[in-house]
Amino acid sequence: MKKTSFLNYGCFSFPLIFFLLSLLVSISACKPKPLIISAIDPKIGIMGDIISIVGENFGADQDDSYITIAGQEPTTSSYLEWTDTFIRVRLPEFGQTGLVYVHKGDQKSNAVLFSNRLKIPEQAREVSADPGPRIDTITPAAASIGSLISIQGKGFGMGREEGSVRFSWAAEAESDKKITIEPFDTGFGYELWTSDTIRLRVPDGAISGALEIHTLYGNSAPVLFTVSEKPGTKVFSNKRSWTIAYSVNIQVQDSSNPNTLYLWMPQPAYSSSQPNVELLSSDTEPFVENYRGTTLFQIKDMAAQTNTSINVSYVVDVYTVETVIKPQSLKAQSASLPVSYTQSTPLIPVDAPEITELAATIIEKERNPYIKAKKIYEWIIANSAIQSRPLNNSVLDALERKQSDSYSASLLFCALSRSAGIPAIPVAGVLIDKNRIAAVHYWAEFWLDGFGWVPLDPALGAQAAPVSFSLRDDAALWYFGNIDNQRISFSRGQNRFSQMDPRGRIAAHKPDYALQDFWEEAIGGITSYSSLWSDITITGMYTQ
Out of 1.20.272.10, 2.20.25.90, 3.10.620.30, 1.20.1250.20, which CATH number does the structure's domain 326-491 have? Predict the structure, then answer.
């Protein structure tokens, strides 16, 4: 520290005083700045929601810092963003109410109260002349897919709760119907929701037209929003409505109380090609109805030699998606997507030398993201000998053996694309043949800024389809950028969950019709049990 910064005042003449003043200022400067939480959003939520914490002096990087909510610390993978003034994290399981703290070394922030929506009793709401939301301005008034916009107004509610922002969406031959789409990407949708401000990104599939806000207190009047010109077109057509059923059966051989079994049962995924997913029936009350694309069931104190089953059924609208891209009109890829769409994971080993070297060889000096993705797709269907039968091999195994299935081929596409700087996700679900038999199947999507998600299916592009599946003659060409309506997706990307209890014993099903790190967790006195998860059964199909 420079002495002149203290001596230029000229109001003291004693060296000792100058020394003491310098010492005090130095001590003050070395003292860590206090951690301050100025706001959290939402203030009420449930496990799996994303909470935003705004404040000061959190640190530019997380390092060893962490937060606690009602005494519970989220897992490392739950943190989505950490800056000096802003933290985004997925909520762990917590009790009725609790305090939120930010911890950094020996420091601890001020506390802010947070409540569990599932534990709050219903209260009579005040009746006002205008209880619903009102939109005043949207900034900017026109934006491209994936862009961040801010909505200002009143009556949005203190937290999102079950609120949503609905954008216009249209399918070919259904222009007379009012269909909407809302943000659906985990970690890439709503960023802020307060009583007068909503900050979110324009979702994939949105078109110019009416924008509305739906809340528990009512719906806003529609306001015109313009989706900026895209570098191509995306058409949704040929809707098929599938009704499906599936179940899990639990047999307990040996147990003692207390005990708990949690089951994460996948739901059909909400997306621009599956904009309507409706639960038809469930014979068991869920513990959490929608937790990151699954229904979480809790079964408590099961006795030895007992049998329990859970049965659910859904109706899912699925559209054929066809895209036409103008590569020369694409923008340079930005860093707007969360890191989870480009990072290396155990399933998608982006950093493996085999992947980085192969990606560089395939794309050569190409810079256009669409052309890079197409080169990778064409290399996979030409060189990885994709099989229609399941091999269940990993990405690196598939490269070494020069043989893959839909699972490893889709993961290989994602690994090579991410290595080439293209955000990509695997999609898990079922493929439905002409006999209405559903088989586990995988495909992928990659992101183009200003356009959205582009689908592809390397396995069908290589004609690696079940014998009774109706495959197109131009499969290799068509299944890059397009996808059929003879499938149902259950997960887009990998669903990662935190255990309900660190002592719980988890069970994983890999690969299956959803990509999630575990499906079951046994806690307490369950000594021995078995589970039987059924296949997806197609119970009906309706065409437009």
Answer: 3.10.620.30
- pLDDT at res. 499: 86
- Please tell me the predicted confidence (pLDDT) of residue 95: 54
Contact between 252 and 498 under an 8 Å Cβ cutoff? The reply is no
Strand partners, 292: none
DSSP helix/strand/coil, 396: helix
Enumerate residues 6+ apart whose C-beta is below 8 A from 442.
406, 407, 409, 410, 411, 426, 427, 428, 429, 459, 511
Q: For residues 435 and 176, which has the higher predicted lDDT (pLDDT)?
A: 435
The pLDDT of 305-324, averaged and rounded, is 96
Under 8 Å CB-to-CB from 57, ≥6 apart: which residues? 32, 33, 34, 35, 36, 84, 104
Q: What is the largest CA-CA distance in the chain?
A: 97
Residue the block writes with tokens 């131009």? 474
Instruction: Name the β-bridge partners of 190.
Output: 200
55 residue type, one letter:
G
| pLDDT tens for each residue of 33-47 | 889 988 888 877 777
Give the closest residue to 115 by CA, choosing from 91, 131, 133, 132.
Answer: 91
Class of residue 402 by CB neighbours under 10 A (exposed 0-12, middle 13-18, buried 19+): exposed
Burial of 13 (0-12, 13-18, 19+ CB in 10 A): exposed
Q: How far apart are CA 135 and CA 160, in angstroms?
A: 15
**Secondary structure in 3-state letters for 423-482:** CEEEEEEEEECCCCEEEEEEEEEEEECECEEEEECHHHHCCCCCCCCCCCCCHHHHCECE
Pick the CATH number of 134-229 from 1.10.1200.10, 3.50.50.60, 2.60.40.10, 1.20.1050.10: 2.60.40.10
Superfamily of domain 36-119, CATH level 4: Immunoglobulins (2.60.40.10)
pLDDT tens readout for residues 463-503: 999 889 989 999 999 999 999 999 999 999 988 888 888 88
**What gap in Å lies between CA 476 and CA 510, rounded to an integer?**
27
